[in-house]
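Hi everyone,

Forwarding the result from last night's run.
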Amino acid sequence: MRKRLLIVALLAAVTLMFGLAGCGSGDTEGREAQEDVEGLPAWADEAAVTAQARDAIDLFVAGDYEGLASLFGDPAPAASDFEKAARAAEDVGGFESYGDVSFAHYDGGADGMAAIVVQQAHCENDDLVYSVGIAEDGRLVGFRLS
Protein backbone atom coordinates (compact mmCIF):
# COMPACT_ATOMS: atom_id res chain seq x y z
CA MET A 1 0.00 0.00 0.00
CA ARG A 2 2.80 2.44 0.88
CA LYS A 3 4.63 1.64 -2.35
CA ARG A 4 1.49 2.48 -4.33
CA LEU A 5 1.07 5.70 -2.37
CA LEU A 6 4.66 6.69 -3.09
CA ILE A 7 4.29 5.88 -6.78
CA VAL A 8 1.09 7.95 -7.02
CA ALA A 9 2.75 10.81 -5.15
CA LEU A 10 5.81 10.60 -7.39
CA LEU A 11 3.67 10.79 -10.51
CA ALA A 12 1.72 13.71 -9.05
CA ALA A 13 4.97 15.51 -8.21
CA VAL A 14 6.36 14.99 -11.67
CA THR A 15 3.12 16.28 -13.18
CA LEU A 16 3.37 19.36 -10.95
CA MET A 17 6.99 19.92 -11.94
CA PHE A 18 6.07 19.73 -15.62
CA GLY A 19 3.24 22.17 -15.04
CA LEU A 20 5.49 24.64 -13.24
CA ALA A 21 8.16 24.34 -15.90
CA GLY A 22 5.59 24.77 -18.64
CA CYS A 23 4.13 27.91 -17.08
CA GLY A 24 7.42 29.76 -17.33
CA SER A 25 8.78 28.27 -20.50
CA GLY A 26 7.16 30.51 -23.10
CA ASP A 27 7.24 29.17 -26.65
CA THR A 28 7.86 25.44 -26.66
CA GLU A 29 7.86 24.84 -30.40
CA GLY A 30 10.85 22.82 -31.49
CA ARG A 31 11.63 21.57 -27.99
CA GLU A 32 11.68 17.96 -26.90
CA ALA A 33 9.17 16.85 -24.27
CA GLN A 34 10.41 16.52 -20.70
CA GLU A 35 10.59 13.02 -19.28
CA ASP A 36 10.83 11.98 -15.66
CA VAL A 37 13.30 9.31 -14.67
CA GLU A 38 13.55 7.24 -11.50
CA GLY A 39 16.54 7.95 -9.30
CA LEU A 40 18.53 11.09 -8.75
CA PRO A 41 20.43 13.11 -11.35
CA ALA A 42 24.20 12.57 -11.45
CA TRP A 43 24.94 15.75 -9.47
CA ALA A 44 22.71 14.85 -6.52
CA ASP A 45 23.77 13.07 -3.35
CA GLU A 46 20.95 11.04 -1.80
CA ALA A 47 21.70 12.03 1.80
CA ALA A 48 22.17 15.71 0.94
CA VAL A 49 18.94 16.16 -1.06
CA THR A 50 16.99 14.16 1.54
CA ALA A 51 18.32 16.47 4.27
CA GLN A 52 17.51 19.54 2.18
CA ALA A 53 13.97 18.31 1.49
CA ARG A 54 13.45 17.53 5.18
CA ASP A 55 14.71 21.00 6.13
CA ALA A 56 12.07 22.49 3.81
CA ILE A 57 9.38 20.19 5.24
CA ASP A 58 10.43 21.13 8.78
CA LEU A 59 9.94 24.82 7.94
CA PHE A 60 6.47 24.01 6.59
CA VAL A 61 5.55 21.96 9.67
CA ALA A 62 6.82 24.75 11.96
CA GLY A 63 4.68 27.30 10.13
CA ASP A 64 7.68 29.26 8.82
CA TYR A 65 6.13 29.89 5.41
CA GLU A 66 8.31 32.94 4.72
CA GLY A 67 11.39 30.84 5.42
CA LEU A 68 10.15 28.13 3.07
CA ALA A 69 9.38 30.65 0.32
CA SER A 70 12.90 32.07 0.66
CA LEU A 71 14.37 28.71 -0.42
CA PHE A 72 12.96 29.21 -3.92
CA GLY A 73 14.52 31.33 -6.66
CA ASP A 74 12.78 34.29 -8.24
CA PRO A 75 9.90 34.45 -8.54
CA ALA A 76 9.32 32.85 -5.15
CA PRO A 77 5.88 31.50 -4.29
CA ALA A 78 3.82 33.50 -1.83
CA ALA A 79 4.09 32.41 1.79
CA SER A 80 0.29 32.60 1.95
CA ASP A 81 0.11 29.71 -0.55
CA PHE A 82 1.96 27.47 1.91
CA GLU A 83 -0.28 28.67 4.73
CA LYS A 84 -3.37 27.67 2.71
CA ALA A 85 -1.87 24.24 2.04
CA ALA A 86 -1.21 23.79 5.77
CA ARG A 87 -4.81 24.65 6.61
CA ALA A 88 -6.00 22.11 4.04
CA ALA A 89 -3.84 19.41 5.67
CA GLU A 90 -4.91 20.09 9.27
CA ASP A 91 -7.05 16.93 9.43
CA VAL A 92 -3.99 14.67 9.36
CA GLY A 93 -2.88 16.03 12.72
CA GLY A 94 0.57 16.92 13.89
CA PHE A 95 3.77 15.63 12.36
CA GLU A 96 5.24 12.58 14.12
CA SER A 97 8.05 11.11 12.02
CA TYR A 98 9.47 10.62 8.56
CA GLY A 99 8.75 7.43 6.62
CA ASP A 100 9.84 6.06 3.26
CA VAL A 101 11.66 8.24 0.76
CA SER A 102 12.07 7.82 -2.99
CA PHE A 103 13.68 9.84 -5.75
CA ALA A 104 13.21 10.93 -9.35
CA HIS A 105 14.54 13.65 -11.60
CA TYR A 106 13.59 15.57 -14.70
CA ASP A 107 15.21 17.91 -17.18
CA GLY A 108 14.09 21.41 -16.30
CA GLY A 109 15.44 22.93 -19.52
CA ALA A 110 17.28 26.16 -18.71
CA ASP A 111 17.17 25.25 -15.01
CA GLY A 112 19.04 21.99 -15.69
CA MET A 113 18.38 18.63 -14.11
CA ALA A 114 16.16 18.81 -11.01
CA ALA A 115 15.97 16.18 -8.28
CA ILE A 116 12.60 15.23 -6.83
CA VAL A 117 12.51 13.92 -3.27
CA VAL A 118 9.26 12.13 -2.41
CA GLN A 119 9.13 11.92 1.39
CA GLN A 120 6.41 10.19 3.39
CA ALA A 121 5.55 11.76 6.74
CA HIS A 122 3.64 10.00 9.51
CA CYS A 123 1.18 12.30 11.25
CA GLU A 124 -1.24 11.79 14.16
CA ASN A 125 -4.25 10.75 12.06
CA ASP A 126 -2.85 9.82 8.64
CA ASP A 127 0.22 10.04 6.43
CA LEU A 128 1.23 12.85 4.11
CA VAL A 129 3.53 12.65 1.11
CA TYR A 130 5.73 15.65 0.38
CA SER A 131 7.31 16.08 -3.05
CA VAL A 132 10.20 18.54 -3.04
CA GLY A 133 11.93 19.61 -6.27
CA ILE A 134 15.54 20.74 -5.92
CA ALA A 135 17.67 22.37 -8.63
CA GLU A 136 21.39 21.72 -8.94
CA ASP A 137 22.16 25.17 -7.52
CA GLY A 138 20.30 24.20 -4.33
CA ARG A 139 17.17 26.29 -4.70
CA LEU A 140 13.76 24.68 -4.46
CA VAL A 141 11.79 24.43 -7.69
CA GLY A 142 8.73 22.66 -6.31
CA PHE A 143 6.97 21.80 -3.05
CA ARG A 144 3.80 19.77 -2.89
CA LEU A 145 1.96 17.72 -0.32
CA SER A 146 -0.71 15.11 -0.79
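The helical segments are 2-23, 46-62, 65-69, 79-88.

Cheers,
N.
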